[in-house]
Amino acid sequence: MDDYFQTALAGYTSETPISDTMLEKLPLFIQVNLLENIVDHFEEMQRAGKEPEANEELLYLIKCLEEDIPYKGFFHEMYSTEAPFEYEER
């Protein structure tokens, strides 16, 4: 993932300047984005009138946040191509 990120960042910055200060804040932005995804799951349940429950996708996002696993777990050992972005508590 690090190689991919460096390639994507090089391409992005070749067209759009980005300050070092903003780059330093990128890990925080990624974590906030993950938290926003988690909150969105709960908001959807609330709008549908459902009781809050943690499905495999929500558990996956929570695990990424709790264990500081970047990029939604791509190239992490818990990522599975058979069941992407799903996690079952063991």
Features:
single chain, about 90 residues, mainly alpha
Layout of strands and helices, then pairs:
Elements: H1 2-15, H2 20-47, H3 56-66
Question: Could you state the order of secondary-structure elements as H and E?
Answer: HHH
Shape: globular
How many DSSP-defined strands?
A: 0
Count of DSSP-assigned helices: 3
Query: What is the helix content?
Result: 55-70%
Strand content: under 5%
Distance between the termini: 26 Å
Mean pLDDT: 83
Rg (C-alpha, Å)? 16 Å
Question: Which stretches of 5+ consecutive residues score pLDDT under 50?
Answer: none
Structural class: mainly alpha
Largest sheet: none
Summarize the structure.
With 90 residues, this protein is mostly helical. Helix content is 59%, strand content 0%.
Description:
- It is a single chain.
- The protein has helices at 2-15, 20-47, 56-66.
- It is globular and about 45 Å long.
- It starts with a helix and ends in a 24-residue tail after the last helix.
- It is an all-alpha fold and 90 residues long.
- α2 (20-47) runs antiparallel to α3 (56-66).
